[in-house]
TrEMBL record:
The keyword Zinc applies. Pathway: Glycan metabolism; pectin degradation; 2-dehydro-3-deoxy-D-gluconate from pectin: step 4/5. Binds 1 zinc ion per subunit. GO terms for molecular function: 4-deoxy-L-threo-5-hexosulose-uronate ketol-isomerase activity; zinc ion binding. This is 4-deoxy-L-threo-5-hexosulose-uronate ketol-isomerase. It comes from Enterococcus gallinarum. The gene is kduI1.
Length: 280
């Protein structure tokens, strides 16, 4: 079973008078991992497709052709994958690889078949996927968290001590425009970044997970720096973050999240920091 929802783009002026419900309907994705199904969202922000593939007793393959005007899903797209669930496998044009929790994969354009499976249906793999348009075929690369040296940043005094694992990044593998990574907050930290930033040249999508306990929630900050808004996010929910919006969030406890970006620039540090006295 496969479902795909389409979300459209908005200007900052559009959301100025949105109610909480309207804001959630446009930018929050509440269902990502549903056992036995593929749940996708197609955002017109840089035409990113993201979501969850959660195989149980049967393998799953993303089937998109007519929706994208192509013969097969990755004919003109690249794909990033990170498993945040139980052990699984990924079969790429007939080549099968084991995928434990925190293993990732970059899959280049013109790859015809990507099939996802779980080793144990009672503890299924949870493959978070992100796909964007691509103009060139780069090699497929498996990326394990064990192979990535994290960037350690923040500190306990400012509640943002965290490790950033860059999976699809120029230091790790080549891609057309997709960047993807995994951030883990240390116990006692809650902010995923503050001071916040924008990056007009790239949009971003986040999925939040591995919450410290069942009562944990994340307050995801968005909007223009001088007119901020927020979304209350539960575990394994995702947020679309337009390029004009601030990028920041704070949890009631520590958590992890996957970020995926695409746009005109693949330089990770290409961002515009927002001074704290400009936030409203």
């Amino acid at each position: 079973m496969q479902e795909m929802e389409t979300r459209y783009t908005h200007s900052p002026e559009d959301i100025r008078h949105y109610s909480t419900e309207q804001l959630r309907n446009e930018f929050l994705v509440e269902k990502i991992f549903v056992p036995g199904t593929i749940q996708l969202t197609y955002t017109h922000n840089d035409r990113m497709i993201f979501g969850g593939v959660t195989p149980t007793d049967q393998p799953l393959e993303v089937q998109l052709s007519k929706e994208l005007g192509v013969e097969y899903f990755l004919e003109r797209r690249e794909l990033g994958v990170i498993n945040i669930g139980g052990a699984g496998t990924i079969e790429i044009d007939g080549t099968k690889e084991d995928m434990k929790k925190q293993d990732g994969y970059y899959i280049g354009k013109e790859t015809k078949h990507v099939v996802f499976s779980s080793k144990d249906p009672n503890d299924p793999a949870k493959f978070y996927v992100s796909s964007v348009p691509a103009h060139h075929k780069y090699p497929n690369v498996k990326i394990s968290i064990d192979q990535v040296k994290p960037m350690e940043t923040g500190e306990g005094l400012t509640l943002n001590e965290r490790k950033i694992y860059q999976y699809i990044h120029p230091n790790v593998c080549e891609s057309c425009q997709l960047q993807m990574g995994y951030t883990i907050l240390e116990p006692g930290s809650a902010w995923n970044t503050m001071p916040c930033h924008t990056h007009e040249r790239r949009m971003e999508a986040y999925v939040y997970f591995d919450f410290a306990n069942e009562d944990t929630k994340v307050f995801h900050m968005m909007g223009k720096p001088d007119e901020t808004k927020h979304l209350v996010v539960a575990e394994e929910q995702a947020v679309i973050s337009p390029s004009w919006s601030i990028h920041s969030g704070v949890g009631t406890s520590n958590y992890s999240f996957i970020w995926a970006m695409c746009g005109e620039n693949i330089t990770y540090t290409d961002m515009d920091m927002v001074p704290m006295d400009e936030l409203k």
